[in-house]
């Protein structure tokens, strides 16, 4: 009987201790890719995971940093008009979404390079601390969106006076 050797057996050259715990008995598919010199070479590539499949919605790259009193979010939104942006702010999260429309239609064979993203995009950002939603502001200049979120001061206390009557 011809049994397939486990990953460990092939790696170490030793015989199998038990077939019950062999979890590496399936091979990954081998595909060939042309190299830069035109020669094909074999490479092992696992099948893509579901969350690695291309999506119809892009994800917006961001920078988030803080100052003593604010949390600041910056994102490049070049090609998007301010009225095409949707910003939703909660005390612990910010959601930015919008759409970037291609202004000029060019046929596929006429492209030499195509790297820009066209279509809808979104991004949800969990904040490291609660912010004052009402005092938040957003501005866009030269394709850079800046959102300023004032931090809530949890240590601040207010004394209430009890009214008689």
Average the pLDDT over all residues and give the rounded result.
76
Shape estimate: flat
SS strand fraction: 25-35%
Order of helices and strands: HEEEEEEEEEE
Could you say what the CATH architecture of the largest domain is?
A: Sandwich
Q: Give the helix proportion (percent range).
A: under 10%
Tally the beta strands: 10
Question: Regions with pLDDT < 50 over 5+ consecutive residues?
Answer: 21-25, 38-54
Cα separation of the termini: 96 Å
Helix count?
1
Overall tally of structural domains: 2
Based on CA atoms alone, the radius of gyration comes out at: 27 Å
* CATH fold type of the largest domain: Immunoglobulin-like
In short:
This protein is 4% helix and 34% strand.
Can you walk me through this structure?
The chain contains 1 helix and 10 strands; from the N terminus they run αββββββββββ. With 165 residues, the chain is mainly beta. It folds into 2 domains: 7-48, no CATH class; 58-102 and 117-150, Immunoglobulin-like. The protein has a 4-stranded mixed β-sheet with strand order 3-8-7-6, with no helix packed on it. A 4-stranded antiparallel β-sheet has the order 4-5-10-9, with no helix packed on it. The protein has a two-stranded antiparallel sheet with strand order 1-2. The N and C termini lie far apart (96 Å). Mean pLDDT is 76; it is low at 21-25 and 38-54.
Keywords:
about 160 residues; 2 domains; mainly beta; flat; 4-stranded antiparallel β-sheet; Immunoglobulin-like; 1 helix
